[in-house]
Amino acid sequence: MGIDGTIEDTKEIFVNGYRVVYSFTNSTVFVITVIHCKMLYPQPIMQHNI
Question: What average pLDDT is seen over the chain?
Answer without folding.
Answer: 83
